Amino acid sequence: MRPLFPPLLVRNIIIKSRTSQQFSRFFSSDEISSRDLVFKCFISKSMDPWTNIAFEEWLFKDTNPQEIILFLWRNNSCAVIGRNQNPWKECNVRLLQKHDIPLIRRKSGGGTVFHDIGNTNYTLIMPRIDFTRKHTAELVVRALTTRLDIPAYVTERHDIAVNGLKVSGSAFKLVMRRAYHHGTMLIDTDLDRIKRYLNVERQNLITKGVESFPSPVTNLCNYSSTVSHESFCEAVKDYFTEYYRDYVNHGSNKSATTVDEEFISNIPKVAEYREEFKTWEWVYGQTPDFTHKFEKEFEWSHVKALFESKNGIITAITLTPSNIKYHNLINALEDSFEGRKYGDEKDIDNALNDVRVSEQLSGSNIGGTSISTSEMQRVVNDIGKWIKESS
Amino acid sequence: MFLRSFNVFRVCFHILHVLNQNFQYFSHRLVNNKRTKCNSIFIKLPTNPYLKKFNPTYYVRDLHTSYPNNAVVPFLLADIGEGITECEVVQWFIQPGDNISEFDKICEVQSDKASVEITSRYTGVIKKLHYNVGEMAKVGNPIVDIETDSSNELESSLINSEVSPPSPSAQVQSINITEPLISGEKTHTLATPAVRRVAREHNIDISNIKGTGKNGRITKENILNYVAAGKEAQPSKEIVEDKLVPLSFIQKSMFKTMSRSLKIPHFGYSDEYILDDIIASRNLINDYITRNNQFSFNKISFMPIFIKSFSVALKKFPILNACVIDDDDANTAKLKFRRSHNIGIAMDTPGGLVVPNIKNVQAKSIFEIASDIRRLQEAREKNAIPPNDFQEGTITLSNIGNIGGTSLSPVIVSSEVCIAAIGKLQKVPRFEDVKDEVTGQLVEKVVGKHVIPVSFSADHRVIDGATVARFSQEWKNLLENPILLSAELR
């Protein structure tokens, strides 16, 4: 929905005209306008990614839709994928697990980002009828340009860039009465780490869902010596408070509410959302359908694998060895893998164990072709290791 | 002073802005002109404290229109803004058979960066989901079908009489008897218990019968007439109520192809052909057929002769058998000249218009063409024309003469550049120079001639009027002088 007359223009008139003194004699109004909009600002002291994203969800779902909310937060290292993305395609899941870096799926759309404490996130929540992408991005840019002297601008994809390099990516979510725009802001992030964790070569993984749109990035600290998480929060908070000053509750003393563990512990819903964001069903189970092909030359045979997955579970797997001798063993492995969680090391181990056990019971003789136990073990181990590496 | 009027101006502008937003949000319903249930329209006035005098609270106006009883309403995917035309369905929150109320979540769709929850505008039961998870849903197309409640009907029937186009009698009637105008199984029909018993005995639903008694009462005669009419098995095509009927398969296909054909600039050309000689020739051919039993048909119509002579004339004007390729831009457009004349004939089937074609007419004799037509007609009766016959047509000949018509304006098939349509053969008076028996001189007399009107439409991007005119003259020549057809034999 494109407003006929951008509210920005209307606002400029208010800021420029100095008629408030003159007209307050005729019409006095100290109370909030009759549309009942209220502007609130929250700054988070917590750096736990789950907590922050759960709190953002609470702000979006469980507060009054007439509130315009600005929420500023930052996380310890974590990778965040979009609502409808494939984690195995977007980031190096194995490496993230190895380094104990959380993987989070957010509820808005868009691409994959990597957070660390050099990256500040902002969320702007407002009634749906007032929402346009360009407007919200524009406000953040003005905060940067007017208060921090950074020459930022809004790109055509509604991202924020400086000097041709992206500093902020954004995503949106719209429900019936409300919408939000949230984005990252690279202040002083380790860009190499981003590359390392988000760089994945999976050409043979074909998936539905949204793919990320990689662009070259830069840090804000390259353009200003005074910028930091604190100064960025301060600048954005001041700019927005000024912009929405008609809706600010002048009664309260503080301009922004500090959100810390104590504050959050008083809201049980946040803990609920936090648990939901952590479940396997949400993070991996919401993956759209995909197929993954890979092959390898073993000493004993050349094997091709084709995985099909729905909701993160392997629905079908086809292993094609070039050597028929292992055909039956391979079939048993296929059956065992079906229904397991994709990419889950424990499940893969379980699948392999099942096959080993059934083999030993049947005396390594499935369907006639006899294979020695050691051979069977070798094949099963090789395949297990290979699948763990590739998926 | 100036500032105050300026602020008033801003208020007006703001109202327009909000109305524009509302219009965009509900516009698909207004445009579609269906009788649908709207949300309330919220008119928000600006929040400027200077204008507190003009600043009421939310101003809400409820708009109710009604829709037919128990209708299955397709719920269209509304414009989600930012110029997005399609988005992926990520999650369904409901299943077919679920009850749903207004404002309940239906599904979540995702465009490039935005994840949008779609909420229902209707209350009812979900009938059908149009997309699976992972498919791309198009904005403006239906995403679910909802069977709406009938209970909404009666309460808004009084308001309905304002909203629907009023005619004086209808309005008077609507005040007295609202029900018969809005029909449905649950409406209250006027009939005495005796009449109802008769209806029950005959196993008729009494609400289907139109009453002719006092105040619209259904009488015994009405029922008996209805039964008699039913026995004659005459399906009444009369519309008793407004109905929402989706397009049939053939209609849909016609819709699509004709929408495509729209982009071709058509020009028309009409002429009259005198067919006396052809009629005589055809009679000779039919005699020959009845004498020799080697054919699958007993006689031929004019169509095989028309088609063959059409093809012979087409040899001299190959451009009419071409098609335009890459026609998005004049610089890339090309003409593909096609060797074979696959002439399409428009056929009227019970399901609608279909256009199968006869392949390679240039290499077939009139008899072969006639047997092809016979085969297509038989297939048409069984609704079993093979898809191959619909493909690769190069030019079309449409004969509406058996139904009637003189001046026609056919629409070119989108993969062709020309179409011809033939009207009804009629005997009309014409002037002719006839040799007078007595004087031996040529005298102008009025004679009766069998005349058939022919109309052409051609693609004016690649064909000019003169080409079509010359082609028509050539075809006319062949038809008016059938011996020339044999002169073209190889």
Automatic annotation (TrEMBL), chain A:
One of its GO terms (biological process) is protein lipoylation. It holds the Pfam family Lip_prot_lig_C. The keyword ATP-binding applies. SUPFAM superfamilies: Class II aaRS and biotin synthetases, SufE/NifU. One of its GO terms (cellular component) is mitochondrion. Keywords: ATP-binding, Ligase, Nucleotide-binding. Pathway: Protein modification; protein lipoylation via exogenous pathway; protein N(6)-(lipoyl)lysine from lipoate: step 2/2; Protein modification; protein lipoylation via exogenous pathway; protein N(6)-(lipoyl)lysine from lipoate: step 1/2. It catalyses: L-lysyl-[lipoyl-carrier protein] + (R)-lipoate + ATP = N(6)-[(R)-lipoyl]-L-lysyl-[lipoyl-carrier protein] + AMP + diphosphate + H(+). NCBIfam families: lipoyltrans. Belongs to the LplA family. This is Putative lipoate-protein ligase A. It comes from Rhizophagus irregularis (strain DAOM 197198w) (Glomus intraradices).
UniProtKB/TrEMBL annotation, chain B:
Its EC number is 2.3.1.-. InterPro entries: 2-oxoA_DH_lipoyl-BS, 2-oxoacid_DH_actylTfrase, 2-oxoacid_DH_E2_comp, Biotin_lipoyl, CAT-like_dom_sf, E3-bd_dom_sf, PSBD, Single_hybrid_motif. GO terms for biological process: cellular respiration. It is found in: Mitochondrion matrix. Its cofactor is (R)-lipoate. One of its GO terms (molecular function) is acetyltransferase activity. PROSITE patterns: BIOTINYL_LIPOYL, LIPOYL, PSBD. Residues 72-147 form the Lipoyl-binding domain. It catalyses: N(6)-[(R)-dihydrolipoyl]-L-lysyl-[protein] + 2-methylpropanoyl-CoA = N(6)-[(R)-S(8)-2-methylpropanoyldihydrolipoyl]-L-lysyl-[protein] + CoA. It comes from the Eukaryota. One of its GO terms (cellular component) is mitochondrial matrix. Its main location: mitochondrion. Belongs to the 2-oxoacid dehydrogenase family. This is Dihydrolipoamide acetyltransferase component of pyruvate dehydrogenase complex. It comes from Rhizophagus irregularis (strain DAOM 197198w) (Glomus intraradices).
